[in-house]
Amino acid sequence: MTCSENRVARRMQQLGLRAIQAKKFKVTTDSNHTKPVAPDLVEQDFTAHRANEKWVSDITYVWTDEGWLYLAVVMDLYSRAVVGWSMQRRMTQQLVVDALTMALFRRGFPSGTIIHSDRGSQYCSAAYQRLIKTVGLRCSMGRRANCYDNAAMESFFHTLKVEHVHRQRYRTREEARVQIFEYIEVYYNRKRKHSAIGHQIPLLMETA
HSE-up of 58 (CA within 13 Å, CB side)? Predict the structure, then answer.
């Protein structure tokens, strides 16, 4: 249905609806370190021609009444499916190792897949880099302090927070874990249509 923004605004006002406003971007990446970094193999090209060609990963944070809960995610750019994730109370190297490990198990340990992230200390850590080399992935990192180099992952976090997190109050970290798990695995991967893949559902696209 084609209509103007003003018509949408009038209808929303008549129905008593209000748009959800996104919160401002907050930089959490710790790139002030001397650890080795990888070249950018993606160069803002977030398209993929097959599953397991390119994965992207990043960390975000969620507030609860008990304090911060950190979420690391691995996404397949072909279908935009979330293939790995991990949630912990601290932003450590184990957080990103666990998310990548889940992705590897779910995808049958593919070889040669590009895994792209920022230059955060967690992604440059010895444990994370050792895992990448052991299983034969190709490490890629965006430029320092440039969120556009990982825009697909930033887009997912924006969607998660606007559609779910910013509409909730989590009393405990466990409550946040359960609800975010349900959003990712029950709704986002299996029901939500994604504009970047022609308004298809991520996991259904891969099996079509």
Answer: 22
